[in-house]
Design brief:
Radius of gyration: 21 Å
Protein name: Stellacyanin-like
Number of helices: 6
Helix content: 25-40%
Pfam family, one: Cu_bind_like
Organism: Coffea arabica
Strand order of the largest sheet: 2-8-7-4-5
Keywords: Signal
InterPro entries: Cupredoxin, Phytocyanin-like, Phytocyanin_dom
Largest sheet: 5 strands, mixed
Length: 180
Amino acid sequence: MENVFLVSVAIILGFALTCSGTVYTVGDSSGWDISTDVDTWSKDKIFQVGDVLLFQYSSYHSVSEVTQPNYEGCNTTNVLQTSSNGNTSIPLKNPGDRYFVCGNRLHCLGGMKLHVHVQDDRAPSPASAPEAEAGGSLPPGSTKNNNPPSSAIFNRVGKVDLLFHGILGLVLCIICCGVV
């Protein structure tokens, strides 16, 4: 009975780890601000379907999602969606390019804008993977590492999700197996 409980908890936690997306706080501790270099912040990130962008900002700012032409020209009058509550979560539900600007056009012109490319979260099949060329090498300056640090694995699951799934697994084991 003890083994059934441990296996159930391991399965539930493994499922939770693979199903949750990463929450990215835009600009990290600097937040969504004119002084934050969001281009540098986003360069080493791989955004996937299921991830969430968290914009944290002061009352002097807002965040608006715009089209690519409006992003390039900092057009803040024709937006897809906007928020000014200081704490905006944007779920990345579909693959493709997303564009965000500060609602203050001068701030956008000053660099307060973000472009993210959202990748499909499904891994490509081995048949579609490119083949290595003999004697091939990385382009000069290629040092990007797509492997997340070990601490990033825990970030894929919120503490509340982890607790919920653990309790759910325990309840299921008690109901199904009579384990107390």
